[in-house]
Amino acid sequence: MKHLTSYIFLIIAFLLLGVNGAAAQEKDCPFKVAVVGDNTDISYDNKVLSIRSSDKVTITGDGSLTDWGIEIESRGRLVVTIEDLNIEREGVPLKIKRRVNFSIIIEGTNRFVSKGSSGTAGIEVESSISLRGGGSLTAIGANGDGKTPGGAGIGGDGGSLIIEGGIIHAEGGAGAPGIGSDGTSLIIQGGIIHAKGGAGAPGIGVSDPKKDMTIQIFGGTVTAIGKNTAPGIDGGASSNYPSIAGNAFVIAIDGTDDKGENPATTQINNHTNGLFILGQQQPDNSIVWDSSALVGDVTLESNAEIPDWAEVTIADGQTFTIADGITLVNNGTLTNNGAFTNNGTLSGTVAGVGSLNIGGKEGFDVFNTDGGATFSYNGTEEVLTISRSGYVLIRGRNKDKAVGCGIVIEQSASIRLTLEDLNIKADKAFVYGDESPGVSRGYSLVLQGTNRLTSINGPGMNLYIEVNFRGTGSLTVTGGNGHAGIKAPSLSFFLENNVFVVAIGGKDAASGIEIRNKFYHNRGLFIHGTQEDDGSFSEQYSKLVGSDFTLGGDAEIPDGATVTIDEGQTFTIDAGVTLTNNGTIENNGIIRNKGTLKGKPVEGTGKLYNVITFNANYSASPVLVEKDFLQGDALPSDIFTRSGYTFQGWYDAPDGGTKVETVTEPQTLYARWKAVPVPEPDPEPAPTIYYTVTLPFVEGAATDPVAGDYDVESWSTFRFYLTLDSAYSESQPIVTTDRGETLVPRTSDGAYLVKYVRTDVEVYIDGIEKNNPVANEPIRTAAPEPEIWSEDACLCIRLPEGLPTSPVRIFTAEGRLLDSFRSTPGLNRRQLPTGIYIVQVGATVRKVAIL
Length: 851
Prior knowledge:
Layout: H1 2-28, E1 32-36, E2 40-45, E3 48-53, E4 56-60, E5 69-74, E6 79-83, E7 86-89, E8 94-96, E9 102-107, E10 109-114, E11 123-125, E12 128-133, E13 136-140, E14 154-155, E15 160-163, E16 167-171, E17 185-188, E18 192-196, E19 204-205, E20 214-217, E21 221-225, E22 233-234, E23 243-244, E24 249-255, E25 270-271, E26 274-281, E27 287-295, E28 298-300, E29 304-306, E30 311-314, E31 319-322, E32 327-330, E33 333-336, E34 339-342, E35 345-347, E36 349-352, E37 355-358, E38 364-368, E39 373-378, E40 383-396, E41 406-409, E42 414-420, E43 423-426, E44 430-432, E45 443-448, E46 450-455, E47 461-463, E48 467-471, E49 474-478, E50 486-488, E51 491-493, E52 500-505, E53 513-515, E54 519-521, E55 524-531, E56 537-545, E57 548-551, E58 555-557, E59 562-565, E60 570-573, E61 578-581, E62 584-587, E63 590-593, E64 596-599, E65 607-615, E66 625-629, E67 645-651, E68 659-660, E69 667-675, E70 690-695, E71 701-704, E72 708-713, E73 716-724, E74 734-737, E75 742-743, E76 752-757, E77 761-766, E78 787-791, E79 794-799, ...
Parallel strand pairs: 3-5, 4-6, 5-8, 6-9, 7-10, 8-11, 9-12, 10-13, 11-14, 12-15, 13-16, 15-17, 16-18, 17-20, 18-21, 19-22, 20-23, 21-24, 23-25, 24-26, 28-31, 29-32, 30-33, 31-34, 32-35, 33-36, 34-37, 40-41, 40-42, 41-44, 42-45, 43-46, 44-47, 45-48, 46-49, 47-50, 48-51, 49-52, 50-53, 51-54, ...
Antiparallel strand pairs: 1-4, 2-3, 26-27, 36-39, 37-38, 38-40, 39-40, 55-56, 65-66, 67-68, 67-69, 70-72, 71-73, 73-76, 74-75, 74-77, 78-79, 79-82, 80-81, 80-83, 83-84
InterPro entries: InlB-like_B-rpt, Listeria/Bacterioides_rpt_sf
Protein name: Bacterial repeat domain-containing protein
Keywords: Signal
């Protein structure tokens, strides 16, 4: 019994020791674990935090170094966030156990370093995981030595890895890649990845070249460095991979032997888009450029750097874009023969004959219109340099947004430069030549739209050679303190152009212009002066030259400046152009305003016309018509005519809009038309309808017209005559129709009328009998006749025996057929209403009263 009690106490002690030990390990764990969900198991054993979960789990450290490890096993849709973890240990710092795929979100700064000597990885992946987030992750495998292989930075047996974001640095030990393992797969879609292999291993890929690994790079910035004859990227025996596509930016550096020879070259088996740079690392760790391939149009979506040993060319027809918020550092050579667009930040220089975008969506574009010039943009100093000779267009994207990039045209360059809607504010906004050795050439500057050049230190335009202004646009040039707006040996305004130029010297400047030789003003409007301490403008010169001037770009007359339009001069503000008058306009000539004139009122004795453009506003309308009107003039109504329409007035929109009757401002007006009503055509006459009237053939009588069928127009009257033969002259004809009517001859001419024919009508003629015999005619026994009488409100008809059946017709006294039937030998009875009737039985006719 004592022994049994001792065993029980011993078991309880061990159990308590285990519980207290686990509690102690949980207390000592340097990580904080937060779980959202209810399907998570957490354990602490041998300084390893083990998590089995399908929830949202966050593991947070404080950045302090620890030798605790972490093991994660997914039960389902697990999402793990790691933040500020710093682990160095003999075993595996972070192990992803084989189970269901899941995601790791990288936040803060994280380090996983294996100090073991048995090939342990910094992060061991047995399952399929994806890495993403905005933080950084460093994974370093065990070093290994000549006898024991090192471990991969990120690797494992049978797992697959998808990198979607984050900054990832992975280093492998001896014989192990930075990222990769035999028989696994890697997909890179984003992020910044730097992978370095150990001795004899690639930066990304297999450790055994006879094995295969699927490597697909669709995006992000990837640098892979192989060591000691290993390639930077190695897919091993795979025939289709590695592949590069999308907007990937990939650098592979192949290792060489100790003599700098026999490199194992990275083989990209499928490169459909993106940039690939290949170099070779020498024994002294220097790198020699091998090749670069830019395929397709590429937008850089992750921060990247072109190394100082590399050369990259944007070919003619290609576009390379730095996305908004992205930085490209160019320490090498970047040649642009295609189109370079910088919506982000460029540090370094890009040169070439291709078009450039500087300053992004609100910056400006530089075009080499004939291919002769060369551009070089230093993103660090923010200076665009134009060299050689040719036609160049610099076009701003937002004329109201200044770009901090200066423009320099080399001394020996021969450039015909066009500025369009360009707005620059820089240390030195515009410099042509620098008095360096070289042949100085005449310089032509064409202005289009609205342009502003402002220098902070120096003249707004520092021209070491003669400049000739041309074009129809405007330019305002402002120098820094103590500097003129324009500095040049000589200045010319060409006769055939309409430039509007304002040169403003900075505070304490002697003048708005600094001209060492001659000043020619043969055409256009030129104003120059200086800026006072209070910022106001002090005019030194203002003159409009030429009889007909058209302003082609928005411009501003400074406060303190006076522009005089002399008698005989016409000043036109073009459509879509705004002139802001902050100074004084003395108009003694004509102003034609097709655009917008705002600011202070115009003074002087001249006329200010608003130009109205009239649009006929129908598909086949004639050309537009422009006419000048004074303020308040009534609008004409006879500009256009349109056949079949009446003019309804002028409106400020093609459809709808407001009716305009007097001139208040320059605008385009649209005619409104109303169709003239077309009279309704007379309706087609209804077709004539005919009906058939049938006249019978009667023995002893003749009809006129003769017996037959006759077409009679609907609702008309059919007329016929009846003439008895002499042998039948004593007959009393009874003429009826199948409409039930009895026809009576007209007293005037004896005609019978069938009125209002609206159906087919058949006429019956009865009562035609031969006259009784007279004189010497032989007397024959009278044929038996039917007996006809009334009795007890009935009509009675008796046919003698031997008489055939006869038709019977009963007519009212008005001649309307009341009934008809065939009689049979013997007595026939018909009950009739009280009245007088005419009864016809065969050839016998009697009048009968029914009482």
